[in-house]
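User: Please predict structures.

Assistant: First:
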Amino acid sequence: MHLPRLALLVLCALAAAPFARAAEAELGRRSPPERSLVVDRVTGRTLVTLTNAPSNDTKIYQTHPQWASDGAHIIFRSSERNPAKTPQAYAVNEITGDIVQLTDGPDVDTYSLNVSRHGMRLYFLRGKAKEGPQRLVVLDMAAVLADSAAGAVKERSAYEREIAVLPPEHKGAGGFDIDADESAAYFGVRFADGPPREPGKPIPQVPSGIAAVDLKTGAYRIVLRTPFLMGHVQVNPWVPGEIVYCNETGGDAPQRIWMVRADGTENRPVFKEAEFDWVTHEVVVDKDTLIFNLMGHTPELRKRPTGIMAINLRTDEVTPLGQTSRSQGFWHSHGTRDGRWAVGDNFDGEIHLLNRRTGEITLVSTGHVMKPDHAHPNFSPDGTRILVQSGMLTGGKSLDLMLIPVPETAE
């Protein structure tokens, strides 16, 4: 029997369709647990490894939430876990160790992941800025996780909703965050292109600012314009409409930390810097407190007080939390919302716990290598665990997610 050429083509296409769909069906894809226990050879503490695959698994930046609102899933990004080898978002269940792929497609901007503080939602961007306007979307994580567990994952459109198409002139600078009341997203933007950064030199400064997107209507507006490059946009998770940002130089800025209201008013510097201050890695840890690091990584800087500092955003009162003499001092920091603990990493990948009530500093973990990226420690929402991205198991070739128990709660 001879079929017409068109019929043959149709039959071939139908036969190939299930295989093509199978190759594309990455959304909701489950991976077996990689969870294991590792004993720190210096401190003797038992760490929990959450990921340990031949992939680079990185956490969201420490200024943003890591845990989903269910308290069980930690959201992370990886570029090598799926068959297509595309960057995607994943959720690892801290208790069971199960790993679920949350996004699919070649256009996911995994450096834009924003975990909702009020529900099982994930906000992120689709599209590449150089290829056209990016789209702000929101994902129903609860539905993806439930359908993945049931083996009944649907098409992407069943879980993802487009909020806004960003203007063609939108150029990201400093990431974005979701307001405390989840009414708006605030984006760092730049209004001009600068020359390439020269090796060993600061990042070229260009006019920048903050843009807002209404999460209900998708309306886009400019909140603020600055003469310098925007960086590290974050919100105060307890005060709607309060935005913290920085002057990003890739080094020492003349005035690093700033804050502004969502209507563009009350723009002001936070911790007005002296000539020899080198400020970095600020993060809001409770309604009135921002923690940052006063760098002490050179002998010249150590001639003045350095270390992790807390500043009251209402009174500007500064409280030194401590410095370590190990390595070159602290680098990144975070704090618990109850004001009890702070955490800092140093240049050798050591993690220190700072008791804000007693001033005691405890070395809790070592050997996190700080390659191919830094540890960036975060506390869990209840303050009982510290999440890091660690190069320990690969000698700095790739990163894995690890949990360090806060000592008092681990015993």
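Second:
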Amino acid sequence: MQTLKSVLADYPHTRALKEHELTSTEVALEFVEYPTVSDAFDAMVREQEFDVCEIAVGAFLQARSFDKPLTLLPVVLAGGLHHRRLCYDSQKGILRPEDLRGKRVAIRAYSQTTGLWVRGILAEEYGIQPADLQWVTLEGSHAAEYVDPPNVERAPHGTKLVDLVLEGSVDAAVIGRAGRPGLVPVIPDVEDAERRWMERHGTTGINHMVCVRDDVAEDAAVVNALYRLLAAGIEGAVSDGPVSGPPSGVRFGVDRVRAALGLATQLAYEQAMIPAIPSVDSLFPEALLDTESER
């Protein structure tokens, strides 16, 4: 049995794995805990410190663009729709998407995956390109080699996204699921907008997936056993009720992730996050692709 040093956040669909209720005769998962799972991304992208690690799609695509020895598993741990993530302070007046050109928008990092989806929405639905905005970031990319575009500036250390909006330093901010006090979505009728996007693309967005070091990916028995464990965790959680809130982006399987991942690679290229668009299948272990094709 091979022991795999692993980092996964706490979700309903990882609980059984992390509490060792789901086990395998081929692999054992030894978990390393981080207060916030994104804190592990630097170590995985830059040093490949773990055998298995949850990873943001943007971080993974940039890692691969710099030839880091990482391979993606077709397992989505977090995702969803993102229209509501672009927020502003309604006390300062009404701000609509068409008003954004020339405005300042704060985001944790230009390469953050939520930002990738938000920029894609603005371009597709409102004709607003990333270069039309001034982006204010709190940090750089998990890939140390990546250089932000010229219309990106860094906020002072210790700054918070919400504070930047409320104090008027920026006009809007891309903010995650946790807490947006006093802020409202820039995109009007946001639930309808998200529903239309999902119907148009036939998928929901993806944020976090699972990656492994290449040496793990090259061992067919190990990577297939790991994939079966992750899939069983999702299947078990789904049978107990909805995962990650409706609409859920949590899923597994090459065919179930191909559309969203293909769109993410295209957007990453268009937004100058990666220099070329990789084929989706090239991101996955060959052994796992063979197994999936036999199902």
